[in-house]
Design goal:
306 residues, TIM Barrel, 38% helix
């Protein structure tokens, strides 16, 4: 079978040379975790959807020759996380239309206990009901955070319908992972201009910017010193697949400088390489052992324990 990665419209670091897509029996990053005194990995950016929704998402990825390394049922995917020593991970999903977020939250609550190590995260949409179902998710379901995807949802973070929910989450310091960047696909409401407006309105909002804000990594990083509760995740940045842009080398020193405000993320299971690839790449970067421990383990553990 032809590797669909050859037909991908997205660039690779070395064209025609791809990282492994299947897990090895002992993933090669495992010995390095012991070397750097990392007991296990906390992944702040993993996706879990109802199976019929996940298959629709995979259909879109297929249309752009974006290979899916873990096209398996949910329990097999959870086993792959464990095999790679990812022992805590989020249940990120998101809504693209009104009326969807509430039932996604209900579904996550009903199922997350089946997934060992999962930390329940919900989602919301700019609609009148959002505040009520977000408060329910926090106070009744005990969700630890939420996920928004500006490109897929096609919404402006500054829409008035979001205001009561953002005020509540800011007051209660509930984290939100937000895909606000332009990569891999620019949307009408993506980009740092919309995000800056959001942070000016809610300066203490606890936001984790997905993909380090690619393709505007340097611009998003400049905001870290201004907003104490702002952080970034490394999802799909330090990998050989360049769908999130080509700023990787410039971003490496930022990991050291801002090591307390950066989390490891993978985008599992929708990645065109095995899970070991982004972990191994991070572990091999020229940053201190302390930064590696914080990014892959300590920061995420602290966030999810709060």
């Amino acid at each position: 079978m032809t590797d669909s990665r050859f037909q991908s419209p997205f660039a690779w670091k070395t064209p025609g040379e791809f990282p492994p897509i299947l897990d090895e029996e002992v993933p090669p990053h495992i010995p390095l975790l012991e070397k750097y005194k990392i007991p296990y990995i906390v992944d702040i950016h993993t996706h879990i959807f109802p199976e019929h929704v996940m298959k629709l998402i995979w259909r879109w990825f297929d249309s752009v020759n974006w290979a899916i390394a873990y096209r398996q049922d949910a329990l097999e995917r959870m086993a792959a996380l464990k095999r790679n020593k990812v022992l805590q991970y989020t249940t990120l999903n998101y809504a693209h239309k009104p009326g969807m977020a509430s039932w996604l939250n209900d579904w996550t609550f009903e199922n997350f206990s089946r997934w060992e190590g999962s930390i329940p995260f919900g989602t919301f949409f700019p609609e009148p009901e959002a505040f009520d179902y977000v408060r329910k998710a926090v106070e009744e379901y005990q969700f630890k955070g939420f996920k928004l995807h500006c490109e897929v949802g096609r919404y402006d973070l500054n829409a008035k319908e979001f205001a009561p929910t953002f005020e509540y989450l800011e007051k209660n310091l509930i984290p939100i992972v937000i895909h606000t960047g332009n990569a891999p696909k620019k949307g009408k409401f993506t980009g740092i201009a919309f995000f800056k407006d959001l942070m000016q309105r809610y300066p203490k909002l606890k936001v984790i910017v997905a993909h380090m804000g690619a393709d505007e990594i340097l611009e998003y990083t400049k905001l870290l010193s201004r907003y104490e509760n702002l952080s970034l995740d490394t999802t799909m940045v330090f990998v050989d697949f360049l769908a999130t842009g080509m700023e990787t080398e410039q971003a490496v020193p930022l990991l050291e400088i801002h090591q307390d405000q950066i989390y490891f993320g993978s985008d599992f299971p929708n990645i065109p390489y095995n899970l070991s690839h982004p972990i191994l790449n991070l572990l091999n970067l020229p940053i201190t052992d302390s930064a590696k421990r914080k990014i892959l383990y300590e920061n995420g553990k602290r966030l999810l324990a709060d």
